Every structure is written in structure tokens, then in C-alpha cells.
């Protein structure tokens, strides 16, 4: 055994010991009732939720893929980092309202809430199926990546399958024994390891690349060539730019991947927009909706949304992961750059385009000659990141299947002791199914994991009806959901395989993500049926649904002193969606200097598109803060729902600064000055 492997095993043992400790401790906590086992007694504190939920949402899904795909696709893929804004944006509109309903009616799973609101077994069963098809392939990918990581870092000493099964057993133990309490407690440390690993990996690349000036000058030389995975944009996006440094237009009228692919790369402005919006599916899925039931009060959501997702994850993805992926090309990993003598330092081995996911492992290995203990720590940091998401999915999916399938339809009168045993058995079965897929069905694992979040995204319409729009009927919600899922399948690789490649389009036609294709049909069907039901007055369940909305409005309605803010919120949200993550992104290609204009022409001394993305990321943080805190979407309720609940007195709200009253006076001048500043920048760039 090499010294490198020894350090890895030492840190794995330390990590495993901590996990086993919390598994045992948690098992002593959850023996009394189902709320303790499934939801940690609805008593998760703000700071615990902040760390654990951030890691569970992002860590496993981005820790390896983000760096590798940035290395492969360049700055056009960096735009997908806006998931740090769109994901909390999705939770802002639903988490607080779901928490209030679960607090009022005692729901433990989203399926129980769907059933009670819509009075539909069909929606409940569909939510279970969505949970199943989301959890198993994603958990399989995460466990498989864990095994591959150990196999790679031990240089083949430990086989992938053996490492995967052994290390994954750690997750099984603390999830089944300690329940949600152990899952979130360990999630706190997993989040620290995730943050630390991505931060240190960025610093390592910075150390080998040199300072920011060297980084920028090297990139400017590459931008003057056509060296990139996708070649040049050929006029798409405002000019004939190197695809590594520019978005290939707003949208391209192509059949999609596998049929007629986009020129200059797949990540058009519309592709990035629809991808990041579809990624909301991770928090809209029943598995993560259930997390919203566990906190003491909804103020906890704002910490996760603003500081966890928008600030910390945004910083890690936009800055540190980007520096890793782009920097790797300058450190010898890109053969084309090496052949053109454009690399800074050839310390990384050349990596083929199809093996781009290996980049992060090679970056870790840069420490082999300097600090082997750090190599082991960074590797365990990646393992912890992968397991944070896997544990979250394993815990909640097992709980949902137990409550919404077994308890609801098989054994309604089961005692708590037997229910807990059944939950542990079901979690074990999900665990085994995931490992089986990761071991023996890798192609299926890749295909189904690729569509799982898009399928979960289709639940958006169900949630909109439940907490925002009472006019959405049961039949409309079911029909839209089913149609949306079908369209997702047909616009993904799976659809081609099912139809024998007979469909005239490929994956993501018109550079629009499958999740949004599904949602477009979902919304059309749902709204059409709801309108028909309203016109014909056949919606007999409307009074029942209205009771839920009356309760929500009574406890959550925007305070009268802030009602004027609503229009302002719509305006700034639409502006951000258009220019930040929508079609307006294409302006960033040359807003701060043309990609091929040379280093001196780059106003920010970094590629224009990257600077544009960073600026709109900062604006996105402000948007999340404004919606969560000033629009009362993630604040304390206006009234207590249960005794001893924390709530916000009306006098507390009235005593705060009322921003909208100052618009037109003090704040009006600020808006005018901001507008003049923006105009001045545009004038300077284009006319001076």
C-alpha cells in the first residue's frame, strides 16, 4: 500500500467514526414517534439547516461535474453556475408555505400533503414514483463516483465496486439507525468538508497558474485562436468568437444533440436559462420538499437561500470551480493548448475530452509531492460531498415510500415500532437497488440520472396549485404532470431509445432543456383544463382547496406596509431573469471587450463573459435577499400556528424601514443614478 493510499484510509476511518457516532447517538433520539425519526422532531435549528441543506442540495451534484465540464466547454458552461440563484429562488416560493401547512396539519411527507389538498390518490402515487425514479439513479451515480474516486486515488489498489459498497455502507448505517437527526448532523460536517475542498482546490490551481494577470494574459492568447472543444461561434453571439469564451447565441434552431447539434457549443443563452430553471427540480422534488418540514421556523430558509446557496455555493461555482476547470487547461491537461504552446505549466497529464470528469482527481494529485496528507483530506472532502446528497435522498425517499405507499395502502394501522422497522427495510432496499444499478447497469444509471431532476421539476405545477393558485384543479394538475413527464422523456436520450431513434429531434431540441419542454406542455394542459373547469363550474372541490389558501394568506400575507413592493419585486425579478440568466446573457460575450481583442482590450482583465456572469451573480444575491426578507417569503409567520411558535408581530414589521415609500424621493434618485451609471458604461464601451 502506498503512503498516499494510507493517508486516504486514515481520513476515511476518521470520517467513518464520526458517522457511526452520530448513527448511534441518533438512534437513541428517535424511538418515541415518527416525527423524531423522519423530521428530527421538526426542531432543526437555523444554522444546522443552513449547512446541511446547502450540502445536500448542491455538493453531490456539482463537486465533480462542474470542474470537469468547465474544462470541457469553457466559460459558456460557467453560466450554469446560476443554479446557485435559481435553486434558492424555487425554494423561496414554496418552502415557507409548505412548512406552514405541515405545521398546521402534521404532514410528514409531501405525498400526505398532496393527497389532503387535492383529494387524489393518483397524485400521491405519482409523487412516490417520482421519488423512486429520482432517488435511485442519482444515489447510484453518487455511490459510483465514490467508488471510482477511491479506486483512482489508490491507483487501482482498491477496486471501484468494493470501495463503493464498503464506503456506501457508512451512509446506510447512520441513515437507518439515526434517521433525519443523524442525517442533518453529519450533513453539517459534510458541508464544511465540501466548502473546504473546493476552496483549497481553487487555491492549488492558483498556486500553479500564478497570479490573476498571468491567468488573464494566457487566456487572451487562447481566445485569439480557434482552440476549443466546439470551435468558433461563426457569427452566433455577436461575432466569430472562440467557443471557449463566448455563448453561441441566444438560441439555435437545431434538432438537438444526436441529430443536428448547435454551432460553437450547446450552451446558448436559452440553454443556460432552461437548464438552470430546470435544476429547481432538486428542491421541488418530494425528497427535498420534505426537508422544509423539519425546521423550527421558516426564517431558517433565508439563511440557506441567501448565504448558503446564493453566496457560498455561488462563490464556489463561479470563482473556485471555474478557476479549477479553466486553470487545468493551462496546466497541461488540454492537448490542443499544449500543441500550440499556450500552456503555462505542464504539471497535469493530458486528459481526453471524454474523460473530462477526471480533472478534479488530477488536481488533487498535484499535492502528492508536497503534502500527501492534504491529498487524503481533499479526497475525503469529495467523498463527504457526494455522500451528503446521497444520504439526504436515501433518508427522505425511504420515508416517503414507507408513509405514502406501505402505510397508506398496505398496512394503515401499523404500530410505530413496526413502521420504523419497515422504513429501515425500505431504505435498505433502495440502497441495494442503487448499488446494483451502479454495479451492473451503468448505462441505465447515466440515462435515468440525466432525466430525474427534469421529471421532478414537473411537480412545479402541483405545488403552484397547492400554495399559490387555488383555481388549479385536481384533474388539471394530474394531466399536466403526466404530460410533462412524457415530454421530458421524449426530449431526452431515453426517448430516442424507446422509439428506436425515430423521433425527428434529438436531446434538448432548439437548445432548450428537457425540463422546460416538459413544463411548457405541462402548463398548457393544466391551465386549459383549469379554465374549462372554471367556465363550466364543474370544480366541486374549490371550496375545500380554498380553505388551505385562506389559512396561508391569514398567516403569511404580505404586510400592508409592503404591498407596494410587489410590483417592484416583479420588475427586478424579470430584469434579472432576462439579463442575468436569460437571453440577455449574450451581451456578455463582448460587453467588457471582445474575446479575441487581446488582454489590453479586456476592461476587467478577465474574459468579458466571465465578468458579466460574476456581476449578475452579485445582483442575483441581492434578488434572493430582497424576495426572502423584504417580500416576507422566508420570514416568520404573522401568527403562531401552534403554541410556542415563533412569529412576527405586526408592530415589528411596521417599525422596519419601508423601502417603497421612498421610491420616487430618496430611492427614486438612487434608481436614476444607477440607470445613468449603466448608460455611461455602455456609452464608454461602445462609443469612446
Description of the structure:
Helices cover 68% and strands 0% of the residues. It has 688 residues and is an all-alpha fold. It has a single domain (3-656), classed as Sodium/glucose cotransporter (Up-down Bundle). The N and C termini lie far apart (64 Å). Mean pLDDT is 89; it is low at 663-670 and 680-688.
Task: Please render the helix and strand layout as text.
Elements: H1 3-27, H2 34-39, H3 46-62, H4 65-73, H5 75-78, H6 83-105, H7 110-118, H8 121-153, H9 160-209, H10 212-223, H11 269-278, H12 281-284, H13 286-289, H14 299-330, H15 335-339, H16 359-365, H17 372-410, H18 416-440, H19 442-457, H20 460-467, H21 474-490, H22 493-498, H23 514-536, H24 542-556, H25 565-580, H26 608-630, H27 650-654, H28 666-687
Helix pairs in contact: 1-9, 1-17, 3-9, 3-14, 3-17, 4-14, 6-14, 6-26, 7-8, 8-9, 8-17, 8-18, 8-19, 9-14, 9-17, 9-18, 14-26, 17-18, 19-23, 21-23, 25-26
State the major sheet: none
Structural class: mainly alpha
Count of spatially separate domains = 1
User: Helicity level, as a percent range?
Assistant: 55-70%
| CATH class designation | Mainly Alpha
What's the N-to-C terminus distance?
64 Å
Question: What are the segments in which pLDDT stays under 50 over at least 5 consecutive residues?
Answer: 663-670, 680-688
Mind telling me the C-alpha Rg? 25 Å
Shape annotation: globular
Number of strands: 0
Beta fraction: under 5%
The arrangement of helices and strands along the chain is HHHHHHHHHHHHHHHHHHHHHHHHHHHH
Topology-level CATH name:
Sodium/glucose cotransporter
On the 0-100 scale, what is the average pLDDT? 89
DSSP helical segment count:
28
CATH superfamily: Sodium/glucose cotransporter
CATH architecture term:
Up-down Bundle
Amino acid at each position: 500500500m502506498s503512503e498516499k493510499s494510507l493517508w486516504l484510509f486514515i481520513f476515511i476511518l476518521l470520517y467513518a467514526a464520526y458517522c457511526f457516532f452520530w448513527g448511534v447517538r441518533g438512534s437513541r433520539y428517535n424511538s418515541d414517534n415518527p416525527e423524531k425519526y423522519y423530521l428530527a422532531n421538526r426542531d432543526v435549528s437555523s444554522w444546522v439547516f443552513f449547512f446541511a441543506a446547502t450540502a445536500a442540495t448542491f455538493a453531490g451534484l456539482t463537486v465533480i461535474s462542474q470542474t470537469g465540464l468547465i474544462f470541457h466547454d469553457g466559460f459558456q458552461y460557467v453560466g450554469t453556475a446560476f443554479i446557485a440563484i435559481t435553486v434558492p429562488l424555487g425554494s423561496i416560493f414554496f418552502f415557507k408555505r409548505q412548512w406552514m401547512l405541515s405545521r398546521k396539519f402534521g404532514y410528514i411527507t409531501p405525498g400526505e400533503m398532496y393527497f389532503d389538498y387535492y383529494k387524489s390518490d393518483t397524485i400521491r402515487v405519482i409523487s412516490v414514483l417520482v421519488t423512486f425514479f429520482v432517488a435511485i439513479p442519482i444515489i447510484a451515480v453518487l455511490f459510483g463516483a465514490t467508488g471510482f474516486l477511491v479506486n483512482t486515488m489508490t491507483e487501482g489498489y482498491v477496486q471501484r465496486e468494493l470501495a463503493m459498497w464498503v464506503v456506501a455502507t457508512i451512509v446506510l448505517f447512520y441513515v437507518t439507525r439515526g434517521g433525519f437527526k443523524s442525517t442533518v448532523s453529519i450533513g453539517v460536517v459534510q458541508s464544511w468538508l465540501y466548502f473546504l475542498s473546493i476552496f483549497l482546490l481553487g487555491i492549488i490551481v492558483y498556486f500553479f497558474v500564478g497570479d490573476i494577470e498571468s491567468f488573464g494574459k494566457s487566456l487572451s492568447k487562447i481566445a485569439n485562436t480557434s482552440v476549443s472543444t466546439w470551435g468558433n461561434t461563426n457569427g452566433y453571439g455577436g461575432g466569430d468568437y472562440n467557443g471557449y469564451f463566448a455563448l453561441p447565441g441566444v438560441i439555435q434552431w437545431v434538432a438537438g444533440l444526436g441529430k443536428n447539434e448547435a454551432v460553437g457549443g450547446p450552451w446558448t443563452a436559452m440553454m443556460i436559462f432552461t437548464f438552470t430553471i430546470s435544476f429547481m427540480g432538486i428542491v421541488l422534488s418530494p425528497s427535498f420538499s420534505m426537508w422544509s418540514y423539519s425546521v423550527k421556523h421558516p426564517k431558517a430558509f433565508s439563511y440557506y437561500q441567501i448565504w448558503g446557496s446564493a453566496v457560498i455555493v455561488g462563490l464556489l461555482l463561479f470563482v473556485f470551480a471555474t478557476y479549477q476547470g479553466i486553470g487545468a487547461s493551462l496546466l497541461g491537461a488540454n492537448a490542443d493548448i499544449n500543441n500550440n504552446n499556450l500552456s503555462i505549466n505542464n504539471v497535469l497529464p493530458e486528459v481526453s475530452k471524454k474523460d473530462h470528469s477526471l480533472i478534479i482527481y488530477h488536481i488533487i494529485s498535484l499535492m502528492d509531492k508536497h503534502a500527501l496528507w492534504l491529498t487524503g483530506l481533499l479526497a475525503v472532502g469529495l467523498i463527504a460531498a457526494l455522500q451528503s446528497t446521497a444520504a439526504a435522498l436515501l433518508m427522505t425517499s425511504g420515508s416517503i415510500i414507507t408513509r405514502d405507499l406501505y402505510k397508506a395502502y398496505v398496512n394503515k394501522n401499523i404500530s410505530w415500532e413496526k413502521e420504523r422497522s419497515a422504513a429501515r427495510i425500505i431504505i435498505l432496499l433502495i440502497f441495494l437497488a442503487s448499488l446494483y444499478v451502479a454495479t451492473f447497469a451503468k448505462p441505465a444509471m447515466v440515462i435515468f440520472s440525466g432525466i430525474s431532476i427534469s421529471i421532478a421539476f414537473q411537480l412545479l405545477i402541483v405545488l403552484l396549485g397547492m400554495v399559490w393558485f387555488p383555481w388549479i384543479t385536481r384533474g388539471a394538475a394530474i394531466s399536466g404532470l403526466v404530460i410533462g413527464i412524457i415530454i421530458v422523456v421524449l426530449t431526452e436520450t431515453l426517448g430516442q431509445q424507446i422509439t428506436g431513434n425515430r423521433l425527428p429531434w434529438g436531446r434538448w431540441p432548439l437548445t432548450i432543456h428537457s425540463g422546460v419542454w416538459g413544463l411548457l406542455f405541462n402548463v398548457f394542459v393544466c391551465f386549459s383544463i383549469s379554465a374549462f373547469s372554471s367556465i363550466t363550474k364543474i370544480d366541486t372541490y374549490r371550496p375545500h382547496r380554498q380553505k388551505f389558501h385562506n389559512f396561508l394568506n391569514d398567516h403569511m400575507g404580505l404586510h400592508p406596509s409592503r404591498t407596494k413592493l410587489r410590483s417592484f419585486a416583479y420588475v427586478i425579478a424579470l430584469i434579472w431573469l432576462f439579463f442575468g440568466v436569460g437571453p440577455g446573457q449574450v451581451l456578455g460575450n463582448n460587453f467588457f471587450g471582445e474575446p479575441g481583442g487581446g488582454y489590453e482590450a479586456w476592461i476587467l482583465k478577465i474574459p468579458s463573459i466571465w465578468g458579466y456572469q460574476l456581476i449578475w451573480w452579485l445582483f442575483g444575491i441581492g434578488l434572493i435577499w430582497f424576495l426572502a426578507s423584504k417580500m416576507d417569503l422566508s420570514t416568520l409567520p404573522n401568527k403562531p400556528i401552534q403554541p410556542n411558535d415563533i412569529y412576527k408581530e405586526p408592530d415589528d414589521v411596521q417599525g422596519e424601514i419601508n423601502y417603497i415609500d421612498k421610491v420616487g424621493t430618496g430611492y427614486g434618485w438612487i434608481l436614476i443614478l444607477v440607470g445613468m451609471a449603466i448608460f455611461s458604461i455602455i456609452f464608454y464601451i461602445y462609443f469612446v
